[in-house]
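Let's study a protein:

___
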Amino acid sequence: MDDCPRCQSTLERLSLGDAKTVACNRCGYADVPVEHQAERPEPESWREAISRFYDR
């Protein structure tokens, strides 16, 4: 098995269905790709929020 890139302990191979990854029980490292940039909607103005409230 491979060594953890963070703490150099042995990585454990995990799988669920077709998904497979490696993880470290010692430091919590998991080789799972993540998206760090969220798409945030444009915040509404107070005027728009109050209008929406009164429209309901």
Notes: The longest strand covers residues 12-16.
